[in-house]
Amino acid sequence: MDDFVLRALAAGCGIALVAGPLGSFVVWRRMAYFGDTLAHSALLGVALGFLLGVNPLIGVVGVCVALALALVGLQRRRALATDTVLGILSHSSLSLGLVAIAFLETLRVDLVAYLFGDILSVTTGDLAWIYTGGAAALGGLLLLWRRLLAVTVDEDLARVEGMPVEALRLAFMLLIALVIAAAMKIVGILLITSLLIIPAAAARRFSRTPEAMAALASVFGIAAVLGGLLSSLNWDLPGGPSIVVAAAALFLASMMVPAANR
């Protein structure tokens, strides 16, 4: 097997391992639109990274963190509904990123690769970033697991018990931002959220505990990566979209099987 295929497999499986548990919380907390907003802002981070002469991944993390902080601040003011704020930030940041890249006249930027991923071009350096960022995100999630579960089940009760609800929400947003930066090259900015949501949604029907759902979501994510890469290599299809289609096929198949918790 060629080296580039092995690197693609390693990168995709590494992201799937982290996306499973995080995606489970995204599903539980109904934060899919928030994930889209952060993902769309990643393009602005790429543009700023090129403009400032730093690694685009650093720019992505910086912009995602800034957007998460801005969202928390806007939610506290409660001047607008959360979905309205997310809609404004999502499309504004994506459009601003496209405009900023248009000003990079001396630099050729492959927009298709950033928008839809280019998993077959993953390098050894990309693998190091993916596994370092993924390990940091997974470690942070493990430290916050029980408190995040408590806030997810009943936010008001968690607040009464003295849990820092706002800080936990912000920490979770930052973990998602880190995973988005790591996964950008795998499935692309426009498809990152699907890798978080679809495997978790498929795993939900077969899980009796939160931990089981998180683990099964990772397994489904890895299966989607394997299926997508095989389809891409056999039929010369784009890698990122093929992985998402494979995940969607797994979800549809899961809907035809009786759920374990019913």
UniProtKB/TrEMBL annotation:
Involved in the high-affinity zinc uptake transport system. It comes from the Bacteria. Pfam families: ABC-3. GO terms for cellular component: ATP-binding cassette (ABC) transporter complex. It is a multi-pass membrane protein. It is found in: Cell inner membrane; Cell membrane. InterPro entries: ABC_BtuC-like, ABC_TroCD. Keywords: Cell inner membrane, Cell membrane, Ion transport, Membrane, Transmembrane, Transmembrane helix, Transport, Zinc, Zinc transport. It comes from Azospirillum argentinense. This is High-affinity zinc uptake system membrane protein ZnuB. Coiled coil: none annotated. Its main location: membrane. Belongs to the ABC-3 integral membrane protein family. One of its GO terms (biological process) is zinc ion transport. The chain crosses the membrane at residues 6-29, 41-74, 94-116, 128-148, 168-201, 213-233, 239-260.
